[in-house]
Design brief:
two-stranded antiparallel sheet, alpha+beta, three-stranded antiparallel beta sheet
């Protein structure tokens, strides 16, 4: 089954069994609980209610908000420069829109002139190339002869 030059598989294999090493549990030392006194004892307040009962408790200081820091003063020159910049940008935008409007209006007027020329030119072409002004028929001059409505007049 196997050729002579190939090794044959071993029939039995050596098996090694590895045992896991147990990890010792952590050692817990019991810490003694020592009560700690606050640095200063809060003051105890007693309040007598209208019905005669006395309520005793610790006074709590109200939380005071941090003082508002004064806003830095903005110089008039900085305000004027900012407003001047905004005004300059507004003027530039307006000039750009005005230029665009003038260009569009010029193109529109040019198209109207071309349309008028085409319509007027067509009307002239119809007048020139249309039937002549004689209402009674066609007049043809051939060799000094005049033909009118198929009648020869010499």
């Amino acid at each position: 089954m196997y050729p002579e030059h190939t090794p044959r598989p071993p029939t039995e294999r050596a098996v090694e069994v590895h045992q896991p090493t147990p990890i010792p549990p952590p050692v817990v030392h019991a810490a003694s609980v020592v009560p700690v006194q606050p640095g200063t004892l809060p003051t105890v307040a007693s309040v007598v209610l209208p019905d005669g009962r006395v309520v005793t408790g610790y006074a709590i200081d109200a939380v005071r908000p941090e003082p508002v820091t004064a806003k830095p003063v903005v110089s008039r020159a900085a305000v004027n420069v900012a407003l001047g910049g905004v005004g300059f940008l507004a003027v530039c935008g307006g000039l750009l829109l005005l230029t665009s409007f003038i260009a569009a209006l010029t193109a529109f007027i040019g198209q109207l002139i071309i349309l008028a020329a085409v319509v007027f030119g067509g009307w002239i072409a119809v007048q020139v190339l249309g039937p002549s002004g004689h209402k009674g028929g066609t007049t043809v001059n051939i060799r000094r002869a005049v033909f009118k409505r198929n009648h020869f007049h010499g």
